[in-house]
Amino acid sequence: MTIADIAAARVCCCRCPGRAAVLANTPLQRREHPMWMAEARERRSPLSGTTLGSSFSVQVAFNMKYWLFTVVQKKTDSGILAPDEVLKQRLTDKFWGLGERTPNRRYLQKGDRVVFYVGIPFVTFAASATLATDSFALSEDQKEKYSHGKAFYRNDYGVMLEDIQYWETPRPVKDLIPSLKFIKNKENWGAYFQGGVRQLSEDDFQAITENRKVISPESAKTEDAIISESEFALEAHLEEFIDKNWKRIDFGAELVKYEADDQSGRQFPAGLWSIDFLCIDKANGDFVVIELKRGKSSDATVGQVLRYMGWVEENLAKAGQQVRGIIIAQEVDDALKYAVKGLKNVSVLTYKVDFKLLPFKL
Asked: 55 and 39: one domain?
């Protein structure tokens, strides 16, 4: 029992000399269970104040914990199973599988709240739930039931889920990075989503699961501000649009997305970071790093593409294989213009969003 647990205890009679002994002798597993309550009462005569029985009441209050569960794509005999499909299956089962070495597995308790992170290529928060059980070891029948005949679904441990909320519109992680306290490095944040299970603060959990829109009289929006917000919303979907329309986009060369093992070229992991698109130029076999300038400063964007190029050159490129970069931006400001002017292996492409409403003839 921690100092915080003891401080949260309510003791009916503070004079009872036996309370410390009872706390000390209570089995550790029972004391650590969130639903544990040790009860006793010290009864005294209302007239004399003498003790009638040696008992007291202790009730330990346990704080709810908040967790981030990570789901990634899985390699199967028939191909790659996208992480959103894995999430849907687990939520349908109302079960989440855990490995023996999954970080924080032993600390998961009934009543804790969970938010689900869907990894590459989506990189979004997509659902939330409440733990219906503590972490437990699965029986052979349970292992068979929740594996659905697939090896990657088979786990030795797990938790049951309740109060499941699957969101109609997942929230892109990049939109929330500035407000999330557990992400210390706002530029290189990929490592914070590794490991399967990570504890969150209540503030971070609320920031992810709730749409806390603050409106004040001073923040009344002009028409230009509304248009600017609309453009930012479109930029948030730029990566998805490029991915789905890859063959229709002119990159100035015929590019194919790089693939390695079960990892596609979109949001390709580069050490602690993630490359928006890692490609191969079909004409000469060179690597091409594509970075999207979405709400980032020009200096930060150029710095990122150069960092990714350096990583690819050191870790993936073979002798004689060149690496170049492409920055995709809606517009080019002076900072971006001068930053890339002296870089022969980095180019900039701009895009334009054309949105029209056409009359429908009845």
From this structure: yes
**Helices of type H across 117-267:** 140-147, 173-176, 202-209, 223-236, 238-244
- Checking if the pLDDT of 69 tops 70, the result is yes
More confident residue, 187 or 176: 176
The reply to whether 214 falls in a domain is: no
CB 301 within 8 A of CB 327: yes
Average pLDDT, the chain: 77
Alpha carbons 248 and 234: distance in angstroms, whole number: 19
Q: What's the domain range around 79?
A: 66-209
The span from the CA of 100 to the CA of 282, in Å, is 43
Q: Indicate the residue among 59, 76, 99 that finishes a domain.
A: 59
What predicted TM-score, i.e. pTM, was given to this entire model? 0.48
User: pLDDT of 143-169, one tens digit each?
Assistant: 999 998 888 899 999 999 999 988 888
* Residue 71, domain CATH: 3.10.590.10
The CATH code of the domain that includes 233 is: 3.40.1350.10
Secondary structure element (H or E) that encloses residue 44, with its range: strand 43-44
Q: Assess whether 15 and 72 both reside in one domain.
A: no
Higher local confidence (pLDDT), 279 or 120? 279
Q: Once rounded to an integer, what is the mean pLDDT over residues 215-224? A: 36
3-class SS of residue 230: helix
What are the structure tokens assigned to 1, written together? Answer: 């029992």
43 and 93, same domain (yes or no): no
List, in sequence order, every residue forming a beta bridge with 261; answer none if it has no partner: none
